[in-house]
Every structure is written in structure tokens, then in C-alpha cells.
Inverse folding.
């Protein structure tokens, strides 16, 4: 199945540049690589609270009765 998508000329220029940069065979490959890269968990999200020793205490306002 093939689809046609509309992109602005500036976007097409960016895709062409990235295609050369990553040595992709097609624009489909470029888009797939970009999407997969964006969906990958960011390294900065791991261990955000690492080393925090404070005990969690629920505030009275956080409780539902």
C-alpha cells in the first residue's frame, strides 16, 4: 500500500538533508527512523529520584474521603 502525504517545501528539504545524513534508501526509512527515535524513552527520565532519601508523606489535601 502506498500513500501520498503533503509536506511544505521546507519540510521536504529537511527530509532530503536527513536522508543523506542517515544514508537512508527512501523517505519512508527516514520517517520511520525519526519516529522510532522520538518514541524511545529519554535517558534523562531514568533515575530521576535516584538518591532521594525523603520519606513520602501524603498531605491531608491529597486524601479523598
Amino acid at each position: 500500500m502506498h500513500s501520498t502525504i503533503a509536506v511544505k517545501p521546507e519540510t521536504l528539504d529537511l527530509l532530503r538533508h536527513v536522508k543523506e545524513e542517515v544514508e537512508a534508501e527512501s523517505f519512508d526509512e527516514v520517517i520511520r527512523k525519526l519516529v522510532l527515535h522520538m518514541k524511545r524513552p529519554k535517558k534523562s527520565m531514568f533515575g530521576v529520584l535516584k538518591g532521594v532519601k525523603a520519606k513520602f508523606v501524603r498531605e491531608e489535601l491529597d486524601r479523598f474521603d
